[in-house]
TrEMBL record:
Single GO biological process annotation from the record: cell wall organization
InterPro entries linked: Glyco_hydro_28 (IPR000743), Pectin_lyas_fold (IPR012334), Pectin_lyase_fold/virulence (IPR011050)
Keyword list, A-Z: Cell wall, Cell wall biogenesis/degradation, Glycosidase, Hydrolase, Secreted
Pfam families registered for this protein in UniProt: Glyco_hydro_28
Species lineage: Eukaryota, Viridiplantae, Streptophyta, Embryophyta, Tracheophyta
Entry protein name: Polygalacturonase
GO molecular function, one term: polygalacturonase activity
Annotated active site: 159
Organism whose genome encodes this protein: Triticum aestivum
Cell compartments where the protein resides: Secreted, Cell wall
SUPFAM superfamilies: Pectin lyase-like
Sequence similarity: Belongs to the glycosyl hydrolase 28 family.
Amino acid sequence: MIEGTLVAPPKRSYWIEDTIRHWILFRSVRGLTVTDGGTIDGNGKIWWQNSCKVNTKLPCRQAPTALTFYSCTNLKVNNLEVLNSQQIHISMERCSNVRMSRLSIRAPGTSPNTDDIHITHSKDVKVMDCAIKTGDDCMSIEDGTENLHVKNIVCGPGHGISIGSLGDRNSQAQVANITIDGVRLHDTTNGARIKIWQGGRGYAKNIVFKNMIMDNVRDPIIIDQNYCDSATPCTKQKAAVEVSNVLFKNIRGTRASREAIKLSCSKAVPCHGIALHNVRLTLKRGGGDAKSTCQNAKRRKLGTVMPQPCSLND
């Protein structure tokens, strides 16, 4: 049980290099329940001010994750508030049979790298009934995630729901059986997103984004197999993490830019089995034509899809 408020030390000098990745860490615990309405406050302002994402002249350094679960099984996390993390708010690593619900996660929209819920190398995870607003991904779903179900999430501001990034530094990635259902996004940079670096290997497959409402989202639907978050251009490579069997269903709302659907896939490893079913996205302030771009994506549409997703093929 967490009662009251836990506040992290305000100065970076209080942290040593060996433990800087974690503030609160639960490791190798079976049958753990974390609950009871407490607050975890990462007190992250000084970390954000010294981030290379904010000041490019500064070196990029690690910052703590507020709450980490590592190699835990039969885990429940509910009725908890996590604020102002130094970097990631909640990280789920190598865990199984996890239930997370009724979480409130908040930081300023300008806070860098403050992902809300980060999941990697974990399976059989459910995340339900959460309110999320920070400066980065509302959820980042990374390598090794399998059998994830997300239901009833409110997200914004931030970067939306992201699968990835995958395949960085030519790495192997495996993500499968992901369902994102009943998400409301407002004022986010992305909505339903899959982001993949060039040069990786593996797969991201059997993914469903459905019953989503978007309000002023810049890129509502995006698959990017050419992702590059680097100061120097990424070299074009032939390998890529394969993207297949992805469904975007019952997605509606408004976008902040003219490009509502972007399917940018690898020429060497095209996306396939991409389906759009009942999608309706319009400009927030009206006027102008909708736009979609598609590269190397084998796709089909069912029902009404607005804007039309380029030319269609199976």
